[in-house]
Amino acid sequence: MADEKDYHGKQNYVMLLGMIGLLVIGMVVVSKLGLSRNTSVMLIAGLGAVQFYLVLANLMHLKYEPALINLVAYLSVVFILLFIFGVAPDTLMIPLKITE
Amino acid sequence: MSAHHEQSFLSKYVFSIDHKYIAKQYTITGIIFAFIGGLFAVAFRIQLAWPGTDIPLVGVLDGMKYNMLVTNHAMIMFFWAAMPILLAGLGNFTIPLMLGADDMAFPKLNMLSYWIFLVSAIVLVLSFLAPGGGAATGWTMYPPLAATQNVDPDANFLVNLWTGGSLLILAVALEFASMLLGGINFLVTSINMRAKGMKLMDVPAVVWMLNLATVDFMFSVGPLIAGAVMLLFDRIFNTGFYDPARGGDPILFQHLFWFFGHPEVYVVLLPALGIASEIIPTFTRKPLFAHKWIVIMAVSSAFIAMIVWAHHQFVAGIDPRMAEFFSITTIIISIPFAFIMFAVIATFHGGQIEIKTPMLWILGFIVFFYVGGVTGIFLGSAGFDMYAHDTYFVVAHFHYTLIPIVFFGGIAGFYYWFPKATGKMLSEGLGKLHFWTTAIGLNMFAFPLFFSGLTGEHRRIFNYSSYEPMMVDWILQVRHVATYGAIILAAAQLIFFLNIILSAMSGEKAGKNPWKSNTLEWVADSPPPHGNFTTPPTCYRGPYEYSNPKRSGSDFWPQNEQ
Amino acid sequence: MSFLPEAYSSVAPEVFSLFKLILFLTSFWFTVSIAALFYGVFTSLKKQGGKAKYITGDDWSQSKYIWIPLVLVVLCDFWVDVETAHVWTTVEIADKMPAADYEVKIVGRQFQWDFVYPGPDGKLFTEDDVSIADGNDAELVLPVGKVMKLHLTSADVLHSFFVRQFGFKQDVIPGRILTRWVQPTKEGRIELTCAEICGSNHGTMRNWVKIVSQEEFETFLKNLNSGKVAMATK
Amino acid sequence: MSDVSIERVPKGRLGVWFLIAGELVIFGGFIAAYILARLEYPEFGSKEAAGALNPIVGTINTLILLISNWTMVVAHEAALEKNVAKMKNFMILTLVMGLVFLGIKLGYEWPTDFHEGHTISSAKAIAGAEAGGEVMKVSLFWSYYFLMTGFHGLHIVVGSLVIFFVMLSCSGGENLHRVELAGAYWHLVELVWVILFPMFYLIK
């Protein structure tokens, strides 16, 4: 293997674990609050995104990796979002077509 | 790994972890399948020209058989011929050699990906033997047809798995997995194992293009793998992802399919352009015109390629506003390719052009690919695609893109690197004969189809007798000419095999650098030993320093020389 | 283009003229580029003791020879985009659609087209709709000069509603109804084909479009509602 | 991207990251398909569908998977400190957690759903407006649910095997860098579950 000198900073994983755990609980609570559907979906999606970032950046050490790896990792997410936004208008269009 | 160590026959030729042998395995497998696919094409071309003829091996074609041949012709040519030859074969051979590396980053992974590929090929062949014959749904596998054909909802899932459609989907998924692993290998190798002193712009354009192709593949194939699994489940577990009768949405599959299916075209196109950008400077003895910009444009085209997919679905019933957006992006993508083609053409001016066989093939590639390229504008324009979609205009268009890419580009690369791969030269005379016959075959076959397509002759019809306007005299003539062309195209490849056999028996020895080229692969012996380079080369300059005034004596300046 | 079919609908001429525009532009660029290519090749073939020019194309004095053409290409692209958007909008965008005089529902099934006309109440999607299902002989009867609203759907798999002379096609999707419109401009009997592979007999899926004068169309509707048309079923 | 910063990366790590990107796109394909289908069919949130899943069990499972990721990170730190014994213990803990997750999913959740008559192709027939007769839309949710949780479970199995063999190969204290690679793959499983959990259990 090439050089194994590790450029990963130390970090407090217990705290990280706690944060993500709280976010999970938070999502469940939000889903139980009986808010209007859109708000709850928004909130849950937001919390989920935060967890996603925490896991990716800290657990998987992405924030210590060089630019290229960040590019690759985030591009994969970007293209999927692109796909969703590209197709969403199509799937949303269907009900109104049926009822014509 | 250490250079030059003894290997048993099996570990050297069969379970080889040497990138050069894996490249040869890919290429040979690809050529075999290209031959099978070609025979399929000849068979249904004969049916089109002379309906109801009893064709040897396949018999008289009815609608089902015809659809099956068309479907598997496309599938084989795309996934089991173009991909292994132009991506896996070319990449495995050139990337380590041109970067001055001793092998791929993960040789064992490399071997694994070839063997997965071979398994996928075997599954494909099995799909022909399944009850009901192979898949006959068109290569796009649009559900609900693909989700229900030959499927018995009450039978258990093994029965439904043992059908042409299911096996084909399985084979495609396996093939993608193999190419994905191979792609990881390409990228890691090109990033980590470049020769000492090789900066990004010293990397030859073909390696750039291969990596771009791999990136496009990696980021676009996921949705189709997911979609293929869902389609398979629709077939074997009676789920309803795509079948409206079970509550699904057939258009969703089309999106999943084309999100991959369009970048796939660039996955095979970019390596071909890369081959051109290697061969042209070598035989014009000139630097590649605006090398940096060609790379930049290739990168941008690789990105735009990800957001044009829906132009295959203009008439599929998608949201019309979306169609307008995708029409614009589709026509925008012509800009980077226009630039690349202009730059390539500019490279010829003021050179010392020697039209050896590889150069001849590349000239053919440029001219014929131009035809395919400009006719792409017609179809990219949603307004006219409404009429031309699914007619022979489309067929002619994509045969004018893919045959130049895979045949002309790929074979040019083959003639160019064959001396390096085997140490023997190929015969110039036979090579030129091969070129002219192939060129005649292509144009006889594809060009007339533009006209019959314009009259609205729609595709995938096994017998036009039910359509009066399609039975007029000149269209019948067009079908005959096209069929003769297809037969010539197929027969011309025999010259190719003859050429290879002759060179294997009595080809003249190729030196280390028969074409007087700059890039690093020509530093190694031909054929390069296991481990490629006796001493790892160091890179001092860009790959296209031909006729540099600073260089006295010779008109080329290898990358590894001070 | 003599190869293109005769136009039978109000939009077909626009579609075909779009084709001519693109043909003009692309053939111009094709000729220019290929001419430049061959000029380059034949003026710089290998000569004894000749030396190639060292042109990197990095500075503007050289690269302008491809940047300027590129800008022109972009302009042509823009032109094509504008024309495309115009044609596409007129044909496909629902709210750009002219007011419909009549409606018909067209159902593709393996391997034939069925046509559903409004019943006595003159409205579609009601109980008394009359459907014409007559294998490959069923005719889609349209009045000349009137705007016909087409409700396209399928009963089993994907098909594609394609009448060459109308200049457009539309895939029909089971479980969805897509609305397009056509305004026939000539009387006559032309072919309605399926342009999306739909199974073993896709190659025989052909019906007829019969374009008649408005009076004949009215009488046709009357006969339909009084069950005088063959194969008409409620 | 300057060359230096790239060539500091060991090739193994690069390879794993490209693999992760590829896997992310594949999962992304499923997730995108699910989201799009869900936009199309509001009844996904109905009592027979998302409503029938038990969020409590899901939450417990999520936390278990989360803790297993934490133990994996600790194992990696131990590997950095060349503390093989600690590393092995925490990797074993990770494996146990992974198996518990699978146990709950395959041993409790899926059987309950089956018991309630929800299978991958289970259907509740409702009159379809234009689809001709009966359509069975509710089944779609369960198709997606079983498909995607199954695919995720498959990755947990693969990840556990990877961790197991890496553990064996590192038990002598050699090639410890593999621990991080195995860990990265294991975190991918968590990464995906972070999205799957709310999508299936919480959004009604």
What would your notes on this structure say?
The complex is a heterotetramer of chains A (100), B (562), C (234) and D (204). By secondary structure, chain A is an all-alpha fold. Chain A is built from 3 helices and no strands. In chain A, helix 1 (13-32) packs antiparallel against helix 2. Chain A is flat and about 45 Å long. Residues 1-5 and 95-100 of chain A have low confidence and may be disordered. Chain C folds into 2 domains: 12-94, no CATH class; 102-233, Immunoglobulin-like, CATH 2.60.40.420. Chain C is elongated, with a radius of gyration of 26 Å. The model of chain C has no long low-confidence stretch (mean pLDDT 89). Chain C is an alpha+beta fold and 234 residues long. In chain C, 33% of the residues lie in helices and 26% in strands. Chain D has a single domain (3-202), classed as Four Helix Bundle (Hemerythrin (Met), subunit A) (Up-down Bundle), CATH 1.20.120. Chain D has a two-stranded antiparallel sheet with strand order 1-2. Chains in contact: A-B, A-C, A-D, B-C, B-D, C-D. At the B-C interface, helix 3, helix 9, helix 10, helix 11 and helix 12 of B face helix 1, helix 2 and strand 7 of C.
Attribute tags:
heterotetramer; A: 100 residues; mainly alpha; 2 domains; 3 helices; 0% strand; flat; B: Cytochrome C Oxidase, Chain A
- Counting DSSP H or I runs of 4 or more residues, the number of helices of chain D is 6
Radius of gyration of chain D, CA atoms, in whole angstroms: 20 Å
Structural class by helix and strand composition of chain D = mainly alpha
End-to-end CA span of chain A: 64 Å
Give the CATH topology of chain D: Four Helix Bundle (Hemerythrin (Met), subunit A)
Shape of chain A: flat
**CATH class category of chain D:** Mainly Alpha
What is the second-level CATH architecture of chain D?
Up-down Bundle
Q: In the CATH hierarchy, what is the superfamily of chain D?
A: Cytochrome c oxidase, subunit III, four-helix bundle
Short description:
Helix content of chain A is 75%, strand content 0%.
Produce the secondary structure layout.
The complex is a heterotetramer of chains A (100), B (562), C (234) and D (204).
Chain A: H1 13-32, H2 37-59, H3 67-98
Chain C: H1 12-43, H2 60-92, E1 102-109, E2 112-117, E3 130-132, E4 139-143, E5 148-154, E6 159-163, E7 168-172, E8 178-182, E9 188-194, E10 206-212, H3 214-225, E11 232-233
Parallel strand pairs in C: 1-5, 4-10
Antiparallel strand pairs in C: 1-2, 2-3, 3-11, 5-8, 6-7, 6-9, 9-10
Helix pairs in contact in C: 1-2
Chain D: H1 3-7, H2 11-40, H3 55-80, H4 84-115, E1 126-127, E2 134-135, H5 139-170, H6 177-202
Antiparallel strand pairs in D: 1-2
Helix pairs in contact in D: 2-5, 2-6, 3-4, 3-6, 4-5, 5-6
